[in-house]
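User: Quick one: structure for sequence A, then sequence B.

Assistant: Sequence A:
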Amino acid sequence: MKKRVLQSSNRIIAFLMTIMGFAGACKDTVIVAAYGSPHADFIVKGNIVSAKDYTALKGIRVIAGIADYAKGCDTVKSDAAGNYSTKVSSYPDTKVKLNLTDIDGVANGLFEPLDTLVTFTNAKFTGGDGHWYSGSTEKVLNLKLKSKQ
């Protein structure tokens, strides 16, 4: 009796799977696979100067990351003119967190570290592909570091 019930169940399942397989193979059925997630590039650049005398600060480490996460995504140093440029790739409505640290010792003076949050309000993205990639947007942020006392 158990054997007969199992055989009948197997036949019913096989029949249903066959019908479902043929139904899914119709020419009019179009399935578009969409893999990925929305993302964009956020570029923050600017100049780092001393808050006291506005001289350019070379060798300041800038770690850029996504505001919701503890770790940074990009690390750069300011050049001789105090300029920096960093890029973070994330979902389109991201806030970028910058962590600035004086790592060159006394070469250009000692400066306090600075954490700042960069918000891209009404950002205009360029170069997107019309699908998952929204493109890139840019913001100029000039920063002043205070001397250590």
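Sequence B:
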Amino acid sequence: MILLILACIFTPYKLEQAVQQFDQQELIDSLQNGRHGYVRERAAMGLQRISPKRQIPNALHALYACVSNKNEFDFVRKACVQTLSSWNDEKLPVLVVDAIQEVNEETRYWMAFALRARSDAQSRALLDSLKNDSDPILAYSVRQWLEE
């Protein structure tokens, strides 16, 4: 029992240390191999934090796999999408189109939000298709984003 408690305390500390030390490989490994969803989510957010605007090429494959993984927790997929969005990744619209119908309403909102500032045809087409979505909050928000 004590070991379990220590593991729950040490893991977030280890991830925070990786962010503070700009340890990309530790974060990528945690994203790919973390046993718990909160570890993978924190790793994805940590990658964005250590490189807010510029891509980390070694991390792209792990982030793509995260978004595409139907068995991954929705909140982890959302964190991966947000990181790719901040890097303005060109594959993001394709990944979101494939993933958006597989996740819960909150994650669908954040995936659409990640595309709101993009001007490519695929992002615009997806957002247009969401203007009359069954989720009224998402539909209203998309209409607002497209009017701006």
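The chain is about 75% helix and 0% strand. Residues 2-20 form the longest helix (19 residues).

User: Thanks, that's what I needed.
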